[in-house]
Amino acid sequence: MSGISSSILTTLRLKNPKLLLLEFCSCLSHLKIIHGHMIRTHSITDVFSASRLIAFCINPTFQSNLLTYAFTIFSQLQNPNLFIYNALIQGFSASENPSQSLHFYTQLQSQGLFPDNITFPFLVKACTKLGSVCMGIQVHAQIIRHGLLNDVYVQNSLVLMYATFGDIKVASNIFRRMHGSNVASWTSMIAGYSKCGDVKSARKLFDKMPEKNLVTWSIMISGYTKNSHFDKAVELFQVLQSEGVRANETVMVSVISACAHLGALELGEKAHEYVERNNLDVNLILGTALVGMYARCGCIEKAIRVFEELPKRDTLSWTVLIAGLALHGYAEVALKYFEEMVNKGLTPRDITFTAILSACSHGGLVEKGLEIFESINIDYGIQPRLEHYGCVVDLLGRAGKLAEAEKFVLDMPIEPSAPIWGALLGACRIHKNAEIAERVGKVLIQLLPEHSGYYVLLSNIYARTNKWESAENMRNMMKLKGVKKPPGYSLIEMEGKVHRFTMGDKLHPEIEKIERMWEEILRKIRLTGYSGNTADALFDIDEEEKENALYRHSEKLAIAFGIMKTKAGTPIRIVKNLRVCEDCHTATKFISKVFQRELIVRDRNRFHHFKEGGCSCMDYW
């Protein structure tokens, strides 16, 4: 055995640690043999050999990452050198305990050693991982003190740190002073700008970069997705392909997520084809993203198919499917998958309960929903969150149990949030209960005085119950406080391009044809009994103007465009950023029957599957 140890010890002296790792990675027990040999022969005082052992322990490619063992070796050294301190600072900077790096730096100084351009990048990395701005500034001061501020590796680490902390001004100042900026520093700046929401500056830098790598492309595409510039993310992915760059799984997660938000099924399918064509690994993250994309694009059947084909599934992937089924109103199917998940021994998370309670609400399964709500704490030991209480309010409201829902809110053990009161107000709209609505509306306006939706919802409830003066007062209050309703828009994908429509849109290049098509649609649905519901329209215009405003709502223009551009019988998919108004909901039901089309509309709350004159939401949304 000692012969083997001596041989390895000789190798330690002669070979690069990376080569040693490759040679002995299958013989981890040799590490202890070597260490034991060094102790027995007193060669533990051989700093050179000890440093190679420590380097072996902290190698990031080594699965077990023996940092604890590295510390044991270090503690037996009388005079560790800078190489050893740097190795330990590096190893712990990427560990679960990065503060140890700062501890080793303090020790290094107490030993009279001087840090170098290897010490500081990993020390800065430790501060970044800790999320400690204060420590980061102190390390920055140490860098200046030791005259290493102009070192490119040190500068790169500082740029990344300040960009990660969101201090883009300091990061930018360091970046501008760099003489040898490389891909890493450019990418760090792009990441920083994206994190601060300034994707315009991030894109300017991206376009100026002399050289890009896949990480850069990934950061920029991800930046667009995280900042809700979903169309830009998809466009940049198309540029990536045109330049012959091969995307990886991380890039595709961002692209597929962007397609999901846009409701762009065709683009999402092309992204999925790209994954398959390039033999990318459909891991848990990418697989879950695909399930979510198909669900959010209105194709729940494909979402289920992708889910069933996943080689591995975790609680999140089950939750995404259950949430997708809930959005589409498939409560019974969602319950089936929920029960199957539990039976497989997976523990539901808080978001899983939000998804299944939402499914019960959309499906009108009041008793089952209440049973699941009770089980959150009793069976799983999870304290119900505000989202769970909100689902119960929605559940009771859907069933018309408004007094019970109001009492439930008032008896909550935690302070009800605006969305919870909002769910109750929405139920009052459906059931035309102005009395409870008035009480709830006052609370909401106090909680969120700038939120236009609650003013509009309350004024519409007053209008439906013929309280015209109260409705007018509510609209006047909005004007007085300067509260404006966010502009509604609808998206429809056609031949790989996403078209955006707003109310009264005049910017679309084919708007004249679209308006003519809408007039034809209107003529046909009127013959079968449709008449415009102007109750939700503005109150400061006359009835004729109200009708004209209603007929130019964004989803109506999108539907007209879809019918104009697709073959008879083709389903039409639309995404709307706001809740569908009552008149548009009624008109779409008529259109589905008259034109024999399935219209799949995703609004702010859920999916509406319009078919043969009916809607999957059963007129509750």
Please provide a written account of the structure.
This protein has 621 residues and is mainly α. Helix 4 runs antiparallel to helix 5 and helix 8 packs parallel to helix 10.
Set out the fold topology.
Layout: H1 2-14, H2 17-24, H3 29-40, H4 47-58, H5 67-75, H6 82-93, H7 99-110, H8 119-130, H9 133-145, H10 152-165, H11 168-177, H12 183-195, H13 199-208, H14 214-226, H15 230-242, H16 249-262, H17 265-277, H18 284-296, H19 300-309, H20 315-327, H21 331-343, H22 350-363, H23 366-378, H24 386-398, H25 402-410, H26 418-431, H27 434-447, H28 452-464, H29 468-481, E1 489-494, E2 497-502, H30 511-527, H31 543-551, H32 554-565, E3 572-576, H33 582-594, E4 599-602, E5 607-611, E6 614-615
Parallel strand pairs: 3-4
Antiparallel strand pairs: 1-2, 1-3, 4-5, 5-6
Mean pLDDT across every amino acid position: 87
| Widest β-sheet, arrangement of strands | 2-1-3-4-5-6
Beta-strand portion reads under 5%
The number of helical segments is 33
What does the oligomeric state look like here?
single chain
Shape: elongated
Give the termini distance in whole angstroms: 75 Å
Q: In terms of per-residue confidence, which ranges show pLDDT below 50 for 5 or more consecutive residues?
A: 1-5, 14-28, 538-547
Query: What's the total number of strands?
Result: 6
Biggest beta sheet summary = 6 strands, mixed
Would you tell me the structural class of the helices and strands? Answer: mainly alpha
Report the helical percentage. 55-70%
Q: State Rg.
A: 31 Å
